[in-house]
Amino acid sequence: MAAILLIEDDPMVRRGLQLALRRHGHDVHTADTGEDGLSELRAGVTDLVVLDVMLPGIDGFEVCRRIRADSEVAVIMLTALGDDFDIVGGLEAGADDYVIKPVQPTVLDARIRAVLRRSVGASDEVRTHGELRIDTIALTVTVRGQPVMLTSTELRLLMTLSRAPGRVFSRQQLLEEVWEHDYLGDSRLVDNCVQRLRAKIETDSAAPDYVQTVRGFGYRFRSA
To answer: Would you call 147 helix, strand, or coil by DSSP?
Structure first.
């Protein structure tokens, strides 16, 4: 059973999703404002946050940024239909995935389970590339001996790329392996996650040593 925090201000949507996710086996707590959601997050154990963009007071973007300031808990944003600003803003704030409203509970449950699976299934090895060390057993990453805090999605992306140095992964391949999206998905999920990962592991994210762009194709991992 996963501990889910649902932050949604619409009482009908909030109650409907809470009941539906409970039927799918999750332990769901709710909050109707960003401030209350942050307080709820600090008060107990939460495996994943489902976060609406449009909230009274501080909006979902700011809530996500505050979560990312001191936590790597998984975040799924609820965004408006066809609103690219919501999608891009949520990803840039640090969200792991997004679901478009109106929300189908079965789709949301599938996304929740996919995000939570990203922190399991590690292979039995430690990978060392220059100053970067990836422990796929303990699920830890260090750069120059200093621990690097990655979200489950960032870690899964790094592990996927680093298992085959030099291999070029298309964005669609990464969507299928990391996000488990088995349809033609949104490449912005990949690009934003790559940007966040580079900011954490690269000396210069503008000239990356490890996660490199292959223009017109996708990304590859370079073993330093």
So the answer is: strand
- Region 101-120: what's the mean pLDDT? 86
Given a cut of 80, is residue 122 above it in pLDDT?
no
**Residue 163: pLDDT over 70:** yes
Rounded-to-10 torsion of CA 78, 46, 134, 179: -30
- Taking the C-alpha atoms of residue 211 and residue 179, their distance in angstroms, rounded to an integer, is 18
Other C-beta atoms lying within 10 Å of the C-beta of residue 87? 21
In the numeric block, which tokens belong to residue 131?
Answer: 């100053």
Q: Two tokens at 144?
A: 């120059």
- Read off the pLDDT of each residue in 146-155 and give the average, rounded to a whole number: 94
Torsion of CA 149, 70, 51, 194, to 10 degrees: -30
The residues, any chain, with a CB within 8 Å of residue 79's CB and separated by 6 or more, are: 53, 86, 87, 90, 98, 99, 100, 101
The alpha carbon dihedral of 158, 97, 69, 119 has a sign of negative
pLDDT bucket at 95, cuts 50 / 70 / 90: very high
Q: Which residue carries 């086996």 as its tokens?
A: 25
Q: Within the chain, how many helices (H) and strands (E) appear?
A: 8, 12
State residue 182's pLDDT score: 66
CA distance 25 to 7: 18
Distance CA 100, CA 173 (A): 22
